[in-house]
Specification:
CATH architecture of the domain at 249-367: Beta Barrel
Strand order of the largest sheet: 7-6-5-15-8
Shape: globular
CATH superfamily of the domain at 249-367: L,D-transpeptidase catalytic domain-like
Oligomer: single chain
Radius of gyration: 22 Å
Number of strands: 15
Distance between the termini: 56 Å
Largest sheet: 5 strands, mixed
Length: 368
């Protein structure tokens, strides 16, 4: 008899699927090489054969809560009528694909378990320049423990709406632009949106986590803000920023909305960016000294801000001259989906990844 398969639907858990096919949860996990009970909508599960002697009806665990299901795949249509990248999607969970791309250094943008333009473009690049990264056995999520030292980077009284700081108020008050919530800090630390973080941990209140509390996050290399910024909002020179080996160059494509880091003709890394088609200057520039924890001052708007992850220039500044630069952002969800004032904006985690691989004097080309 042919082995059965089951496509996971919204609202299902391993327990409900095991009950439906009269198998045990453990045998279901073993048949699919699952290390946890977290499953994702759209994935195909192999159903193990039932024992001949009697059907197995799994018992509902004490205090059981349904496991979180990732959202269905959503294919975003690129703006400006551009065609989708030509990459062929592999048969794997969208979340796992995004995690593998992020770990390989081909940024899919904010990890959300959905397939959009940036994930497809990153996949196209990874398949060309580092295809082995897509076959790594790493699981899409991992368990981490809460560290109370992170609270030094959260200011719940930060002026603003929660989604956007009030930069004018912070110009007057001169306060570091820290995270407004602990959920915001943890989501950015693990390259995802707050909504995915809460789907992975529906029972947790991230604003009241005790020391050592375990929770699930995307299995990426964490963006550890303490390596780049002190709790007093001073830049941390860790010996990494701006200390790349040299001999590399950066190319920025306005059309693709991607920044490419090259060594010779090989693409080493690629990250989604926000640019301004009209104001971002084209041509070739030379990279200046890369600075962690930059302050922000703009005469045009009258803003004069201290450093922090919620700064308009994020957590690192890579100058290009004439007031332009490559930098982080206070809003990673906006990357590639809004317009900058002329600079090149990345998520904070991509910005520090880039900053660790480059050095002063390297060539930066900006083209259509």
């Amino acid at each position: 008899m042919a082995q059965q398969e089951h496509r996971i639907r919204e609202g299902e858990s391993l327990w409900t699927i095991a009950r439906k096919y009269e198998v045990s949860v453990e045998s279901l996990k073993e048949a699919n090489n699952l290390e946890s009970d977290v499953i994702w909508e759209g994935r195909m599960l192999t159903i193990p054969e039932r024992p001949r002697e009697s059907p197995v009806v799994p018992e509902r665990p004490a205090g059981h809560q349904e496991e979180p299901i990732a959202s269905a795949q959503e294919v975003a249509t690129p703006r400006s009528g551009r065609d989708q990248p030509s990459a062929t999607l592999p048969e794997m969970d969208p979340l796992r694909l995004q995690v593998l791309l992020d770990r390989a250094g081909f940024g899919p943008g904010v990890i959300d378990g959905k397939i959009g333009y940036f994930t497809r473009k990153a996949l196209e690049l990874c398949q060309q320049w580092n295809p082995e990264a897509l076959s790594l056995p790493d699981g899409p999520v991992t368990q981490v423990l809460f560290d109370s030292a992170w609270r030094a980077y959260v200011d719940r009284s930060l002026p603003g709406t929660g989604d956007s700081p009030d930069f004018k108020a912070l110009t007057r008050e001169k306060r570091p632009l820290m995270y407004a919530t602990m959920a915001e800090l943890i989501a950015e630390r693990y390259h995802c949106g707050v909504s995915l973080l809460k789907k992975l941990n529906p029972e947790l209140n991230f604003e009241r986590l005790p020391e050592g509390q375990a929770f699930l996050v995307p299995n990426v290399r964490p963006f550890e803000i303490e390596d780049y910024l002190s709790p007093e909002a001073e830049g941390q020179w860790t010996g990494v920023v701006g200390k790349g080996p040299g001999g590399r160059r950066i190319e920025i494509s306005k059309k693709d909305r991607f920044l490419y880091l090259l060594e010779g003709e090989r693409v080493l890394r690629a990250f989604p960016v926000t640019i301004n088609a009209a104001e971002t200057p084209q041509g070739v520039r030379s990279l200046g000294t890369v600075v962690p924890g930059p302050v922000y001052e703009r005469l045009k708007t009258g803003l004069d801000l201290l450093a922090g992850p919620n700064s308009p220039v994020g957590i690192v500044w890579c100058p290009l001259g004439d007031g332009y630069g490559i930098h982080g952002t206070s809003n990673p969800d906006s990357i590639g989906r809004s317009v900058s004032s002329g600079c090149i904006r990345l998520s904070n985690w991509d910005a520090v990844h880039l900053a660790a691989m480059i050095r002063k004097g390297e060539t930066v080309s900006i083209n259509e």
